[in-house]
Amino acid sequence: MSAAEGPLVVGVDTSTQSTKVLVVDAATGEVVARGQAPHTVSTGAGRESDPRQWWEALSEALHQCGDAAREAAAVSVGGQQHGLVTLDDRGAPVRPALLWNDVRSAPQARRLVEELGGAKAWAERTGIVPAASFTVTKWAWLAEHEPESVRATAAVRLPHDYLTERLTGLGTTDRGDVSGTGWWASGTETYDESILAHVGLDPALLPRVGRPGEVVGTVRDNGELPFSKGTLVAPGTGDNAAAALGLGLLPGTPVLSLGTSGTVYAVSTRRPSDPTGTVAGFADARGDWLPLACTLNCTLAVDRVAALLGIDREAVEPGTSVTLLPYLDGERTPDLPRASGLLHGLRHDTTPGQLLQAAYDGAVHSLLGALDLVLDEDADRSAPLLLIGGGARGRAWQETVRRLSGRPVQVPEAGELVALGAAAQAAGVLTGEDPAAVARRWNTARGPVLEAVERDDTALARIAGVLSDAAPLLERETDQH
Question: Which of 98, 128, 216, 392 could form a disulfide with 138 if both were Cys (CB 3.0 to 4.6 A apart)?
Answer without folding.
Answer: 98
